[in-house]
Structures are given as C-alpha cells and as structure tokens.
Design brief:
mainly alpha
C-alpha cells in the first residue's frame, strides 16, 4: 500500500513536469512559427521524435507486435489530428481564448470516461474539473468573449485530446509505454509526411533562423520526445480524469514562462485563476485513488 501511494505520487509529479514542459512549449512554439509553417513543425516534431526514441529503445522495439502497433496507430492518429485541428483553430481565434478552450479537456475527460466505462465520476472529480476550468478562464480570457469559428474548432481539439488521454490510460496498462510511444510517434510522423507532401510544404527555408530552429528543437526533443513519453509512462498509474487535471496546469506554466521570457504583467484576475487551478488539484487529490477499469 505504501509503495503504491509513492508510485501514484511519483506519477503526479511526472504529469506536473509534463505540464511544465508543455507550458514552455507555448514560448517555443511562438519562436518556431517565426520561421516554419505549422505542418513543417509537426513534421520535425513527430519524425524526429520517432527516430530519437527508436535509437534509444532499439532493443525493446525490434520484435513486431501488431496489437501494440495498432494501439500506437490509434494514439498517433488522435495526436496528429488533435494538433492539426488546434493549429487550424488558432487561425480564427486568439491564442488567449484558445488556451482556455483547449484546456476544456479537463471537463470532457471525466464525462467521456463516464460514457465509455459506465462508471460515474465522483462528485469531487467533477467539481475539481469545473473549478480548474474556471481558473483557466480567469488566467486566459479577456473582455472579448465573442464566439468565433476558431473557438468551435478548438473545442473539437479538446474533445479529441480527451479521447487520447483516455486511450493512453487504457493502452499503457497493457503494453510497455516507451514502445507504445515509439509507434505513436511513427504513425504521427507518417501522417505529417503525407500532409507535407500533399501541401508542398517547405521544410528548410528558415534553416538560418536561429530562434525558429531553437524553438523546433525544444518542441522535438523536450516537448514531444521527452514529455509525451513521460506522460504515457505516468498515465499507467493515474486515473484519466486526474491526469487531465494535472496536464491542464500547462496553462499556468505557460503564463509563468511568458512572464519570464516576455515580461508580461500579471493582473489580479490572473492570480485568482492560478489559485483556482491549484485548488482544483487539491480537491482532486482528496478523491480516493483507484485505477480505471477501461
């Protein structure tokens, strides 16, 4: 029992680390977009991460397991589709509004888990999700609350990412998380290659842009290869709804990195939002831990 508690606490810490890395990804993404198109960035992220993880875990992946590959294909498809939808939505809404709407997966996840597993989330889980969403809203929303086409598209992304979180929790309980992540990157990479070829996207026209290259490097090595691998490993020991809540902390870390890098000023409502998100985490931790049955 004591070892199990330590394992879950370690998983929580790892998921928070992933959220922090993703928070830094907002800054890195802005740098990367200064020289590369969204599809080019996805190409480098997924193909590079697949090659890197393949080299580091060659001994584990040399045996063909078609069931494992199929699970990786599912995750890779959701991953590529979700990020592509997010980028499309960003063209028609503001980054601040998208960061709030995208984080609505913190609410979608327990509801979808309820539909799939037929197990009703505990009241504290639902309360924590709602409190976290309110907090993220205080952090990111401004006075302009008009609904735009990009807002609806972003909600589709949040729904897709919620499914990915649930399926990740399911698959990592069956298979080695590192090998699963490798196949996930492979299929995301294949889809990005197809998209690049179909759209005739240029890949090296900004190779002399040091800031853009650095941004892509962070997204490839840290934000994708490391963070998603850590996410998949940690989700073996965390309920999907709780994992979604911890991962939603990326909005808080994104704000902190924006302050450090760009010197953005913090207003009172933003600090209040941070307090709400942290409160949601403590509410969630008050729920008796149990493994998902899916």
């Amino acid at each position: 029992m004591e070892n199990g508690k330590k394992t879950m606490l370690t998983a929580d810490f790892v998921l928070l680390l992933v959220a922090a890395i993703w928070g830094g990804g907002f800054v890195a993404g802005k740098l990367a977009l200064s020289g590369f198109s969204p599809l080019a960035i996805l190409f480098y992220r997924f193909c590079g991460a697949a090659v890197l993880l393949g080299i580091l875990s060659f001994r584990k992946i040399h045996k063909m397991d078609f069931k494992l590959m199929r699970c990786g294909m599912v995750l890779g498809t959701f991953q590529f589709a979700g990020l592509l939808i997010q980028l499309i939505g960003l063209q028609y809404t503001t980054p601040a509004k998208q960061s709030f709407l995208a984080a609505s997966y913190v609410v979608f996840t327990p509801v979808l888990l309820w539909i799939i597993s037929k197990i009703r989330p505990k009241n504290k889980e639902l309360l924590a999700a709602i409190v976290a969403l309110c907090g993220i809203g205080f952090i990111t929303l401004n006075r302009d609350l008009q609904i735009q086409a990009g807002d609806l598209i972003t909600l589709v992304f949040a729904l897709v990412f919620s499914v990915q979180i649930i399926m990740t929790g399911k698959y990592t309980r069956r298979y080695d998380a590192v090998v699963l992540t490798f196949y996930q990157f492979c299929f995301s990479g294949c889809l990005s290659i197809a998209a690049v070829l179909l759209t005739h996207t240029k890949l090296i026209h900004a190779i002399n842009n040091g800031a853009a290259v650095a941004g892509v490097g962070y997204l490839l090595f840290i934000n994708t290869a490391l963070a998603i691998c850590l996410q998949n490993i940690a989700q073996r020991y965390a309920k999907p709804s709780h994992a979604a809540l911890l991962l939603s902390m990326e909005s808080v870390f994104g704000l902190l990195f924006s302050i450090l890098v760009y010197g953005e000023r913090v207003k009172g409502h933003v600090l209040f939002g941070c307090v709400l998100v942290l409160t949601a985490v403590f509410i969630s931790k008050g729920v008796k831990a149990s493994r998902s049955t899916i």
